[in-house]
Automatic annotation (TrEMBL):
<keyword id="KW-0732">Signal</keyword>
<protein>
    <submittedName>
        <fullName>YjbF family lipoprotein</fullName>
    </submittedName>
</protein>
<dbReference type="InterPro" id="IPR021308">
    <property type="entry name" value="GfcB"/>
</dbReference>
<keyword id="KW-0449">Lipoprotein</keyword>
<dbReference type="Pfam" id="PF11102">
    <property type="entry name" value="YjbF"/>
</dbReference>
<feature type="signal peptide">
    <location>
        <begin position="1"/>
        <end position="24"/>
    </location>
</feature>
<dbReference type="InterPro" id="IPR023373">
    <property type="entry name" value="YmcC_sf"/>
</dbReference>
């Protein structure tokens, strides 16, 4: 129970005042700390009106069976860890918790975490762009991807990870209480050096390929993190 409460605390977000030009969604309009979720035994669920009334991008996030928390975007910056040409449409979105835990995503892909109790993804490196970033829904997008990942605890650096993507089905999922059509893709992941396999899942907007829901591991032997995009970041 103590570990569960700590995990909840790590994913329970407050909007933190930040004075930086890199953050295009300024938080200075609010008080020093505005708690948006409460630690408890049930999922945090906000109404559509509540989500829309908050002028910041937001997600639901949960670790394995821990109840979900509502999290607000803190920063949006050009990526530094992915080997790709930065463009205005490519941003690292940093979702920061009250006690400084952080989830970092690029189009829904977790590319870094900080201060999670279970362990952290330190870096993702590849000579190839992530198919999620290219638009997995496009016929021209490769359906395989090779990268290396670093994670902690321990000294896990430079592990080669191979992925293969398969289209599952067009499904209707609930996003912010609204039935939403999405393309469901399965990412089969293999870490040969550790003889480990697992599967990530992504749900994409059919027209754009933007990820609106995912269930993914940050590293082998780490728990799954599920994220649902409630309100998109507007650059």
């Amino acid at each position: 129970m103590r570990i569960q409460k700590k995990l909840l605390s790590l994913l329970t977000i407050s909007i933190v005042l930040m004075n930086t030009t890199a953050c295009s969604q300024r938080i200075s309009a609010l008080n020093d700390t505005l708690t948006l979720a409460f630690i408890g035994d049930k999922d945090t669920v906000l109404s559509t009106q509540q989500v829309n009334d908050i002028p910041y991008a937001s997600i639901y996030a949960k670790i394995d069976d821990v109840p979900q928390a509502f999290i607000v975007l803190a920063l949006a910056e050009l990526p530094f860890t992915l080997n790709q040409q930065p463009t205005p449409a490519v941003k690292e979105l940093k979702w920061l918790s009250a006690d400084k835990a952080m989830l970092v995503t690029v189009n829904g892909r977790l590319v870094k975490t900080h201060n999670l109790l279970t362990g952290d993804l330190v870096a993702v490196e590849s000579q190839q762009p992530d198919p999620l970033l290219l638009g997995l829904h496009l016929d021209t997008t490769p359906k395989t991807w090779t990268r290396t990942i670093d994670w902690q605890p321990g000294y896990h650096f430079g592990y080669k990870v191979n992925s293969h993507f398969d289209f599952i089905a067009t499904e209707t999922i609930l996003i912010n209480e609204t039935p939403t059509q999405a393309l469901h893709y399965l990412e089969s992941v293999v870490v040969d050096n550790l003889n480990i396999q697992y599967q990530n899942e992504f749900w994409l907007v059919p027209e754009t390929g933007h990820v609106i829901k995912s269930r993914q591991k940050i590293a082998p032997n780490q728990p799954f993190i599920e994220m649902t995009l409630l309100k998109s970041f507007a650059s």
